């Protein structure tokens, strides 16, 4: 059964275009399921699906003479005088594949759909050899609205322009699902797992696969233990400014190595850093970025997170699907947790009060932003400008 993702209409629209459709993101975020649904809905008669985790398929697409690949497919009954749809999974496993795609794309009437598990590889290799011939779609773990859909729960989408009021019955209906999202994240198979122990086992397996396969393809990491130590250190620093010197001291790695690892972790979709907004550099923090994990389950597995850190990380993952996210902080320490598209400010508090909103509104004036809200988890006090976290979907 196909379970819909909010990105799917955009993928379906791109299916009719000549450009190569590229799906990238962490392993096991659902890229293959999306590709197979696109294949099923395409009206192109000649369709092929290739998984490069199979050694014989890798050998085929690693052929030095690209016409040999075309000949092999012809032997399997493909008529290249007519349109062909070819889907290829895990393209990072064949280093020269962008050149192969470029030649076949330019020579024959072929629509390609390809997936890869790393932005690090995809963005570097594809930008060089397939400029103008592809469009990249980033596939993330499920956001909260998608988690509800996967569980067969209907709920209206969130709209900044028309934020719904807090409804106690809706809180009771959705609270359990939101707690699960905060604790175990949004990898599709984790969401669909029935028991807590199964969810935890799957999250552990996903992180191990990421370390052992994705990162192994991307980089020559001599000591994975040091990288895992860095991941754990980052997980307990969710929502705080990155201090490279501190991380260097705690890991005993060189500053250059820590910076390279951070770049690798971000480009391979494990973490995300957000910038600070600044109007008056003499009063505000202007350089430091904050770090978040792109899945709560991975973040929780990697370190000893507080309940508040888990909640803030979950809210970040909800808001990042609504626009560009930044933060704001004065040198005195006063801050706004999240600013979306420079239009709306959000403070995150597990148990929020009206005073939190007033503080956010006061800081927002420095940025000439008129809309301010407080996002809470435990609705002990309800007031205008309060949003229950589970309503962001």
Automatic annotation (TrEMBL):
Coiled-coil residue spans: none
A molecular-function term among this protein's GO annotations: ATP binding
Entries under InterPro entries matching the protein: AAA_14 (IPR041682), DUF4143 (IPR025420), P-loop_NTPase (IPR027417)
AAA domain boundaries: 18-148
Pfam families for the chain: AAA_14, DUF4143
Keywords attached to this entry: ATP-binding, Nucleotide-binding
Keyword RNA-binding set for record: no
Top-level taxon of origin: Bacteria
Name recorded for this polypeptide: ATP-binding protein
DUF4143 domain ranges (all copies): 214-349
PANTHER family xref list: AAA+ ATPASE DOMAIN-CONTAINING PROTEIN, ATPASE
